[in-house]
């Protein structure tokens, strides 16, 4: 009799475990939220959009870095086959330079938005084509976009309600956020520090800075008319950022 009671208890425990596991699997398959529908197992609209946005942003920041944070610099110095933005400049001699881009991070965020907005709108068009190939439909409201530069990443927020319907389910979202990993923010901060010290002291100790921050490799190239071009490399990613400086220039022959 003792064995029989133990056996019955074991059976009830096993039955309870089977029920719990079955409920958990059913909940997982259904998903906790509405947008997680079956067709996403075969095709993810968010994943498609994220890849397209990331590729366009990466293409732009690859151009921006070597040119000093801008795709088409307005005030620049030709260096290594590219126009490099002046970050600190004075026209006269003996005078310390004046910082040209004290709000560099904000300017670069605007630059990324302006240079990628049309292409990212095109991403929605490409997504609609993919949805159409699957006999689905897609509706998107007027699109807007915010860009923020954070530590080691760039955050792109897309605003505009999007609804996608494909056989098997519907997904909707009012905003969509994409993070692009990049050291651009840190490189820009180093550039602003260089410009700040050149404006104060007509000099920047790049050797000393590298001892304090070994992540960066900084090179200085002296050109004609006392123009100095600093190239900052982020060692882990090999991404570069260049800036031009003209400060406390000494006239030729003196």
Write out key terms for the chains shown.
10 strands, 254 residues, elongated, alpha+beta, six-stranded mixed sheet, 2 domains, 5 helices, four-stranded antiparallel sheet, single chain
Quick overview of this protein structure:
The protein is an alpha+beta fold and 254 residues long. It has helices at residues 2-30, 45-64, 104-133, 184-201, 206-212; strands at 76-79, 82-89, 98-99, 137-140, 144-150, 153-166, 169-181, 216-222, 227-234, 239-246. It folds into 2 domains: 38-58 and 109-181; 68-101 and 184-246, no CATH class.
Oligomeric composition of the shown chains: single chain
The total beta strand count reads: 10
What characteristic shape results from the CA principal axes?
elongated
User: What is the number of helical segments per DSSP (H or I, 4+ residues)?
Assistant: 5
Strand content: 25-35%
Sequence of secondary-structure elements? HHEEEHEEEEHHEEE
Radius of gyration in whole Å, from Cα?
28 Å
State the helical fraction.
Answer: 40-55%
Q: Please mark out the parts with pLDDT under 50 across 5 or more consecutive residues, or reply none.
A: 25-40
- Mean pLDDT, to the nearest integer, reads 86
By helix and strand content, what is the structural category? alpha+beta
The largest sheet is:
6 strands, mixed
Indicate how many domains the architecture comprises: 2
Cα(first) to Cα(last) distance is 111 Å
């Amino acid at each position: 009799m003792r064995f029989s009671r133990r056996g019955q208890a074991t059976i009830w425990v096993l039955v309870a475990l089977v029920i719990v596991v079955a409920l958990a699997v059913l909940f997982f398959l259904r998903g906790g939220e509405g947008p997680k529908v079956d067709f996403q197992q075969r095709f993810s609209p968010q994943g498609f959009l994220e890849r397209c946005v990331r590729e366009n942003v990466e293409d732009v920041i690859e151009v921006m870095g070597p040119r000093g944070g801008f795709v088409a610099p307005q005030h620049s110095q030709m260096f290594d086959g590219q126009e490099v933005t002046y970050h600190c400049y004075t026209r006269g001699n003996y005078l310390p330079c004046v910082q040209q881009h004290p709000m560099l991070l904000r300017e670069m965020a605007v630059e990324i938005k302006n240079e990628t907005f049309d292409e990212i709108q095109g991403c929605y068009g490409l997504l609609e084509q993919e949805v159409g190939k699957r006999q689905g439909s897609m509706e998107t409201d007027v699109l807007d976009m915010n860009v923020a530069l954070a530590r080691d990443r760039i955050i792109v927020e897309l605003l505009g309600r999007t609804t996608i319907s494909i056989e098997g389910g519907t997904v909707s979202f009012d905003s969509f956020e994409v993070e692009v990993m990049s050291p651009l923010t840190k490189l820009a901060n180093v550039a602003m520090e260089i410009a700040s010290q050149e404006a104060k002291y007509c000099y920047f100790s790049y050797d000393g800075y590298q001892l304090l921050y070994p992540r960066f490799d900084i090179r200085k190239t002296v050109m004609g008319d006392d123009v100095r071009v600093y190239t900052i490399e982020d060692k882990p990613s090999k991404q570069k950022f260049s800036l031009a400086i003209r400060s406390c220039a000494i006239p030729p022959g003196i």
